[in-house]
Amino acid sequence: MAVRSQHASRPQANTTRFYLSIAAALCQPVRLHRPQDHLPVVRGAVPARHRPGCRRALLDLPDSGEVRLRARLVGVDHYGLGSVSGGTIVDRFGWSWLYKIQLPFALVTLVMVYFFIPWTIEASEDTTSRDETTEGRRLLSLFDWTGALVLVISLLLLVFVLGTAGNVLPWTNPFVLLALFLFPCTVYALVRVEANAQKPVLPPVLVQFPFRNIMINAFFLSIINYIVMYNVTFFFQAVLLETPAQASTHLVAPSIAFTVVSAISGATIARLETPKPTLRISQVMLLCGAVGLMVMATILPRTETPGALYNICLAMPILGVGMMAPSALLLLLGMSDRNNHATLNGGFIMMRSLGGFTATSISTTIVQNVFQQTMRPFMTSEEIKKKIDSVRLNMDNLQTLEEPLRAQVVNAYRTGFIVLFGLVITLSVLIIFGFIGVSDGQVVQEAPDTAEPGSVTEMEDLMGDTDDSDG
C-alpha cells in the first residue's frame, strides 16, 4: 500500500481540486431534478459536512488569503456550473445521467485524495510507527461506541419517519408507528449513555446555554438553506410549468449569492472584530427572504412576473443564511476557550449536516402530503387517479394533462409549497428568538482555573481560520 505524502505538491493539489470541483458541479442538480421522488436523494458525492475539511486538507499553501480565494472559486464553480448544466443534461439524456456522469470524476478524486492528502498536518520527527499505533488504539478504546450506535439508530428512525410517513407509507403503517414510538426512546437512551461516557459523542457543553441555542439555530439554518435549494426546480416545474433546463437556471442566483455573501461577511467580521453586526443583519435578511418565498408562492404565480423577481425572492433567504453561518460559527468559537473549539465546531457541523438531510425528507413529506389531501376530492375515477400518480412519478407528465385537471394539479402543488414556505417563516422566527440573550461574541471561559495558559481567544484570532461555504 502506498504511503501518502506529508504534504501534497501544488500540481497534485490543483489537479485534485479540479476533479473535486467538476464532481461537485455535476452533483449539484441531482436531487433537484427528481423533485417527484418519494425518498430524498443525497445531493452529491461531496457532502456538505466534508467540503470545508477537504479544502483545508488539500490546500497546503501558507497564504490563508489565497486558500480562501481558491475555496470560494471552487464554490462558485460547482454551484454555478452545476445549476446551468444540470437541466440541459436532464433534457438531452435523462435524469439518470446526472448520476452516471459523476462516477469517473468522483472515482479519480477519491484516488487522488487518498494518495495525496497529508497524512498528518503536523508530524513529529521522533514519533515512531509503534507510538502512533499505540496512540490510535488508546483513542479507539476511549471512543463512545455505544453512544455512537444509539445516535445512528435514532437518526435512522427520524429519517425513516420523515421520508416515508404519509408519502411512501401511510401514517398508520405499523413500521411508521413503531419508528415514532422508538425514536423518543432512543433519544432518552442516548442522553443516559452520554451522561456516563468517558468521551461522549455529544459532550455536555453542547447542551449548555448559550451554546445550545447556537447549535439549534445551526440546525434550523441548514433546514432553511436546503429547503430552498432542493425545491427550486421542483417549484418552477410544478407551479410555473417550466422545463428542467429552464428551472435549473433559477439556481444560479441563490447559489452564487451564498458564496459571495459568505466572503463579504468574513471580511466584515474581521474588520469589525465582532460578528454581532452581521449576525443582526442576517436575521433581518433571513426573515425578509422567508416572507419573499411566501409571496413567490402565493402572489407571483397569478401575475405576469419577470424571472428576475423570482431570482430575488430566492436569493434573499440564501443571503441571510450565507451571512449568518460564519457569524454564528465565530460567535460560538469566540465564547469558549480553545479546549472546546474542536467539540463546538464539530457539533456545529453535525447540526448543519443533520439539518441538510432533515430538510430533504421533511420538504418532500410536506409537499406530497398536502398535494394528496388537496387532490383527493378530484380523484373521482380510477383513470384520473392514475394520471395524478403518473405526474407524481414524472413531472414531464404534467404537461400532457388536460384542463381543468392540470390547473387542479398545479394549484395542489402550489398549496404544498405555501405550507412548506410557512415552515421556513416559522424557523426564521425561532432563529431570531434563539439568539436573544446570546453574547455578542466576547470570550467567556467556563473554567478559568483549569484553562491552559494562552487558552483565552480573542475574536480577531479566529478570523483567518473560518470560511464556511456550506451552501
UniProtKB/TrEMBL annotation:
State whether keyword Disulfide bond applies. Answer: no
Enumerate the UniProt keywords alphabetically.
Membrane, Transmembrane, Transmembrane helix, Transport
UniProt keyword annotation of Repressor present? no
Protein localization: Endomembrane system
- Provide the transmembrane region boundaries: 101-121, 142-163, 175-193, 214-239, 251-272, 284-302, 308-333, 354-371, 417-438
Source domain of life is Eukaryota
Q: Where is the composition biased (Acidic residues)?
A: 458-471
Q: How does it sit in the membrane?
A: Multi-pass membrane protein
Q: Which GO terms describe its cellular component?
A: endomembrane system; plasma membrane
* Gene3D superfamilies membership: MFS general substrate transporter like domains
One example of the protein's molecular function in GO is:
transmembrane transporter activity
Residue span of region Disordered: 448-471
Q: PANTHER family recorded for this chain?
A: MAJOR FACILITATOR SUPERFAMILY, VACUOLAR BASIC AMINO ACID TRANSPORTER 4
The protein's name is Major facilitator superfamily domain, general substrate transporter
Provide the species name.
Metarhizium humberi
